[in-house]
Structures are given as structure tokens and as C-alpha cells.
């Protein structure tokens, strides 16, 4: 059974861009939504007119962004009454893109992004523990259960979607917007760590513990668990960057 994000999380993906007018931002927002599994294979994107309205950009900007996605092999555009732009791939083809992005960032920049990301999602988790209703908490547990499995691609989709769910449960529009912006910039890189089986196992376990902390209205515990998890992911990413810069592989064969 494929887990579906709650409507609030999907709406957040299509929130207006803060700095409108750049086709690269449209392409990155949609690319990272595909990598994170928010947009799934075979899914038809909203129409060009609807994307322009949601992102708050000109129609030509959306069209240029979709050209970038087609060139990257992420979507295909079909003509006719049942046509539109459809997601066609989700995981392996993006590894080279993400590794190139990883090489282009300095260690100090990666560390700073991790601190910023952790600070935002810690705040989301703590506020979610204070604001989530029992129904919200049960849905979060059920969503995690439905999302279990699926290997690396499934784990990335689950982790990225889980962070987005925490932002939505915070019930703070500003936190949601900032999280969306930051997750688009850094989330796919951070989640490269989920190609490591040990990291995947720890993330799955800690996500369950975070959900229980939220259900128990324990904000400090939810915050601490998120901080530890992001630190774990960031340490792996920094180690992997050092490894590939020495000519090694992204994933340690040992």
C-alpha cells in the first residue's frame, strides 16, 4: 500500500515561491518533490496555468522550468485531451545530480545547512507536540506504518515526507514555508544517507519515537530526537563528501 501525504503537506509543496520569477526555482521545487516521493511515478502535475498560479510566477517561467525537468528525464509531456506533464522517474537517475551538488558545497557550508535545517525541523517537531490533536497523532502513526519498506527510495520518500508532516502539524504557515524552502535546498542531499542500511534502520526507529513523543505532547523529547537524527544524517553526509573527494564512492562498500 502506497502511503499518501496528508493534503496539507501536498499543498505546501506547491506554495508560492519566495523569490518568484526564476524557472530554476520551479524546476528545483518539483525535482526535489519527485526525489522525496511527494510526487510519484505516473502522477500528472497540475496544469501550467495552475502551477503558475500556485507558485506565483509567470506562465513562461513555469514552461521554462518544465523544460529543465524534461531535459533531466524527470517528466514527460503528453499532448491531447488526456495530456499534461507526468512524473516518469524517482530515484536512481538523481544520484549523479545530487553527488555533483554535494561536490559543489564546502564542508563548512554543509555543516551550516545542517544546523539551519535541524533548527527549523526541531521547532516544527516541538510545536507539533503542542498543537497536534489525537487524530493528527494517530494519522501520523498510521502514515509511518503505511510508509514502511520500499528500500532506499521508499526510505527517502518517508523521511522527507515525515519532516514535511511535522512542519504541517506545527500549524505555523511561516514554519511550513521556511521548511519547504530549506528542504528543497538541502533535504535531498541530507537524505542521501538513507542509501546506508544502518542509517535507514535508525531513521525508521527514531521516526517512530518522534511520533510517540508528539502523541504524548512531549515537545522537548520530540525536539531532542529530531536534533539527534539530523546530526546522524549530517555526520554521514560530511563523511561521504570527504570520501568521494578522495576518489572513493558515495557509499562505503564496507
From TrEMBL:
Listed PANTHER family: GLUCONATE OPERON TRANSCRIPTIONAL REPRESSOR, TRANSCRIPTIONAL REGULATOR, GNTR FAMILY
Keyword set, alphabetical order: DNA-binding, Transcription, Transcription regulation
Organism this protein belongs to: Cryobacterium shii
This protein's name: FadR family transcriptional regulator
Keyword Glycoprotein: no
Domain HTH gntR-type: 20-90
One GO MF term: DNA binding
Lineage, uppermost ranks: Bacteria, Bacillati, Actinomycetota, Actinomycetes, Micrococcales
SMART domains assigned to the protein according to its UniProt record, in alphabetical order: HTH_GNTR
Amino acid at each position: 500500500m502506497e502511503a499518501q501525504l496528508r493534503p496539507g503537506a501536498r499543498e505546501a509543496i506547491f506554495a508560492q515561491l519566495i523569490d518568484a520569477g526564476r524557472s530554476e526555482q520551479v524546476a528545483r521545487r518539483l525535482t526535489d518533490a519527485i526525489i522525496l516521493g511527494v510526487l510519484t511515478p505516473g502522477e500528472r502535475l497540475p496544469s501550467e496555468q495552475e502551477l503558475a498560479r500556485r507558485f506565483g510566477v509567470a506562465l513562461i517561467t513555469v514552461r521554462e522550468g518544465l523544460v529543465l525537468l524534461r531535459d533531466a528525464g524527470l517528466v514527460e509531456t503528453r499532448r491531447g485531451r488526456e495530456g499534461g506533464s507526468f512524473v516518469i522517474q524517482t530515484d536512481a537517475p538523481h544520484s549523479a545530480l545530487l553527488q555533483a551538488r554535494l561536490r559543489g558545497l564546502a564542508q563548512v557550508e554543509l555543516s551550516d545547512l545542517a544546523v539551519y535545517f535541524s533548527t527549523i525541523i526541531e521547532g516544527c517537531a516541538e510545536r507539533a507536540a503542542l498543537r497536534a490533536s489525537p487524530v493528527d497523532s494517530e494519522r501520523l502513526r498510521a502514515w509511518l506504518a503505511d510508509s514502511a519498506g520500499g528500500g532506499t527510495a521508499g526510505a527517502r520518500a518517508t523521511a522527507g515526507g515525515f519532516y514535511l508532516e511535522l512542519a504541517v502539524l506545527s500549524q505555523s504557515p511561516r514554519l511550513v514555508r521556511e521548511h519547504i524552502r530549506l528542504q528543497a535546498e538541502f533535504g535531498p542531499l541530507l537524505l542521501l544517507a538513507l542509501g546506508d542500511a544502518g542509517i535507514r534502520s535508525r531513521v525508521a526507529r527514531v521516526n517512530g519515537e518522534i511520533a510517540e513523543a508528539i502523541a504524548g505532547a512531549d515537545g522537548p523529547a520530540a525536539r531532542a530526537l529530531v536534533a539527534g537524527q539530523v546530526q546522524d544524517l549530517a555526520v554521514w553526509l560530511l563523511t561521504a563528501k570527504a570520501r568521494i573527494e578522495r576518489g572513493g564512492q558515495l557509499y562505503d562498500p564496507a
